[in-house]
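lol so apparently i was supposed to do this last week
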Amino acid sequence: MKVVVIGGGIAGLSLGIFLQKSHIEVVVNERAAGTPGGGHAFLMHTDGLSVLKELVAGTGFKLPGKLVEKFSLKRPDGEEVQRLQLDAWQCIKRSDLTHFLYGLFDGEVKNGREFSHFLYENGKIIAAVFSNGEVEYGDIFVGADGGFSKVRQAVLGEVEFHPGKVKEIVGIAYNEKIAETYAGTFSKFQKNTDGLAFGMIPTSDIELVWFIQYDPSISELEDHSVEGLRLFCKKLLKKFPPIVQQVLDSNDFNKSYLWNTKDFDLLPAFHKDNVVVIGDAAHLALPFTSAGTTNAMVDAKTLAHCLSAASSYTEAFQEFYNLRAEEVLKHVHLGRALRNVFLRPQDQNDDDIPIPLIAGKTKEKDKVMDKPIELLYFTDPICSTCWIMQPLIRKLKLEYGIYLDIKYYMGGMLPSWELYTKGKIQNPGDAAEHWEEACACHDMPMDGDVWIEDPLQSSFPPSIAFKAAQMQDPDKALAFLRRIQEMVFLEKKNIIKWEHLEKAAFENGLDSARLLRDYQGAGKQLFEQDLELAKKMGVTGFPTLFFSDGSGQQVTLKGLQTYEMLEEIIHQMLPLAEKQVIDTDPKNLFCHFPTMTEKEFAVLSNLPKERAAMMLKELYDTGNISQFTSKNGIIYISKFDCIHCL
Ligand SMILES: Cc1cc2nc3c(=O)[nH]c(=O)nc-3n(C[C@H](O)[C@H](O)[C@H](O)COP(=O)(O)OP(=O)(O)OC[C@H]3O[C@@H](n4cnc5c(N)ncnc54)[C@H](O)[C@@H]3O)c2cc1C
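anyway here it is w/ flavin-adenine dinucleotide bound
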């Protein structure tokens, strides 16, 4: 079987590489004379990166692009409305990606071949003819020739393009100072009164890719000359901060261009007879989803797989459509939804502004499975018993998590030292002593010196911050809680201080600008509600665990527990509950829990302490984990690449 690919862009080249891997003969035909260049850059997230990693596996090639670690959204007046750390985002210049793919593709790319039409024999397509008169014969033809695909037009007919109602101007600016200052940050400035935004991301030490998205009803480009475009950009962004002006001033407008966004509805089929279309040729979404490149590569991978697995190309093409149509349709709809939000920012609350790439993915996370047992877990960030229970709670999640819906509440353990009247701990000095003793007994590192060096006066501020974090994302809030526990128990950080709370939020993907708003506002009310509930339910110590199964069975546990006790309650409520087998491969454990103490690792791996310590040392020596050493123990931090994990 010989496959003739038309279009040597992202989709075409990726397909060529995947087909070669499957030992299928392939020829790629590209209109451009050499490697297609093109100015702009892509943002790519996990799905696209994992395809790239698959392409590169075993070749020794380095992935192109720069990691983008932070996202900051500001208003033109400088007010920051979102600030968060990103995970696994990469910014890749289009030309770097195509060069990279050309480098990986061992086969033949025939340049200077602009597709003109097909040659038929007995009603079947047997060859592609190019404008330069050259002809390529083959068995299967793949149109990977972009959104305005001539191949699609030839076999599937005209599509109806829907205007995107938003225009985009893109460019690459050269400014070492700005590239250095903003390295790793996607900065966006967006108006909240009408549809106008400016974004920029450094793509190297000296250059930045930037874009303007605008609603043409605000203003429209009339003079299409290079100088006309420059003046238009300056006029549009006149009220934006000086940094934006500096980027525009460092830009070569000869290489910038205006892009009229458009999309088309999902096609009823991606193929006809022995011709199939992939990438933008098959589906075109508005740019707000930033997913076009990823979709092009996933298409290539899927089609290559279908072709090598199916018994005929008809079956392969049908399977390809079945596998891809639903996903790409989602992007078309999401692109339109995000466009509508962009055009009417005044309808949008600051907290709900969708973040590129992440928008749409969160929806899936919202689907919570119905779990038969509810566990209300009352805790406090500085509760030492809660910290000691961490290994058991983590194990419980892995072994019985499918049955348990755990809900976290803050109990307000330490309003202030004046109001703290429980037990033998009366002041920070007592707390220091207690932590040292508890650490010695239970093997979870705790450094009581924080109570001597920089004592916390209350546990309310970090509790409120946790509630504020929950408003954004319950999972990230838990990671945040874990981080502030590590800060206070191991790093002796006074987690009342906003600087620590902000750092923990940022490190765990929370929007720290929003967290501050909620910390000062609605987070306080949620915390008050938790306190009321705790009072109503008779919570007097921590942790307190309320198990219920929806049929009236309820069990309450107070304070330190054994794992057997927790298991017993689950079996009592759900006799048929089966313990899930934990994959104790350290990589898997660290992908679940990116930081672990020695005790946690031992408990989760079912290993004796000494053996666990040896394994952790090996992992450390081989560079798979790093560590933070505190006075009373170590915390190990994953360096594993977890994209394919879990
Ligand atoms: C301004 C802008 C910003 C974008 N930002 C992002 C982003 O941040 N993230 C993201 O994932 N996606 C982004 N995209 C979308 C992304 O560029 C496309 O989805 C992706 O390039 C699609 O890959 P493709 O291979 O299908 O098409 P293309 O990359 O367009 O490749 C098509 C290839 O076919 C060739 N060709 C065209 N016609 C013919 C012909 N008749 N004969 C032979 N060859 C032909 C072209 O020269 C080209 O090399 C952006 C697009 C634009 C325009």
